[in-house]
Design goal:
heterodimer; A: globular; B: mainly beta; 4-stranded antiparallel β-sheet; 50% strand
Chain lengths: 112, 117
């Protein structure tokens, strides 16, 4: 994988459903993986940054895992609420650069 | 609250008419970035400043320029906007871009949506 890829592109769920989506990134020279939440008309907000293989981070009902050997990260939302509706972006950074490479995002809509 | 502010939030310009987008920060961060995000695409880094040092991405068109007169402000100038330059422009800051060895988070403004008529 040369680029950062996210799937699915969009997701519609009912309030209370749990959901997860994927970020795939180049595993060679991996340094860090960032997750951002971007609500409409607001600034992208940093959720997590992860560096070590097997890292797990949690913030309320949202958690993320990291597999640096195979180059993927999962973001989980337990019991989705309408306020979770946003675009979730991931970005990867390699050792040889201070640049973040973003994916296209997963757009989540949670219906009451 | 410390933050990253972008003005204007929406900008309409005419084909070929120069436009300037503004970004300011109260975080006192060393690094300021400009990203372009076109519809359904990933945010793409155009350039960044580390303090006063300008770092241009190799594939950023010459039509795009930037100025950073002081720590707090950074401007994106589009000299002759084309229809293909219509996009969301995001400004971000970070403390040191990770150059100190630690992982560094980027803090974003809400973006300026540029329309070119």
């Amino acid at each position: 994988i040369l680029n950062v890829e996210q799937s699915p592109q969009s997701l519609h769920v009912q309030e209370g459903d749990s959901t997860n989506f994927t970020c795939s990134f180049p595993s060679s020279n991996f340094y860090a993986l960032h997750w951002y939440r971007w609500e409409t008309a607001k600034s992208p907000e940093a959720l997590f940054v992860m560096t070590l293989n097997g890292d797990e981070k949690k913030k309320g009902r949202i958690s993320a895992t990291l597999n640096t050997k195979e180059g993927y990260s999962y973001l989980y939302i337990k019991g989705s609420q309408p306020e979770d509706s946003a675009t979730y972006l991931c970005a990867s950074r390699s050792y040889n650069t201070d640049k973040l490479i973003f994916g296209t995002g997963t757009r989540l809509q949670v219906f009451p | 609250d410390a933050m990253v502010i972008q003005n204007p939030r929406y900008q309409v310009t005419q084909f070929g008419k120069p436009v300037t987008l503004s970004c300011s920060q109260t975080l006192n961060h060393n690094v300021m970035y400009w990203y372009q995000q076109k519809s359904s695409q990933a945010p793409k880094l155009l350039f960044h400043y580390y303090d006063k040092d300008f770092n241009n991405e190799a594939d950023t068109p010459d039509n795009f320029q930037s100025r950073r007169p002081n720590t707090s402000f950074c401007f994106l100038d589009i000299r002759s906007p084309g229809l293909g330059d219509a996009a969301m422009y995001l400004c971000a800051t970070s403390r040191d871009g990770g150059r100190g060895g630690a992982v560094d988070t980027q803090y974003f403004g809400p973006g300026t949506r540029l329309t070119v008529l």
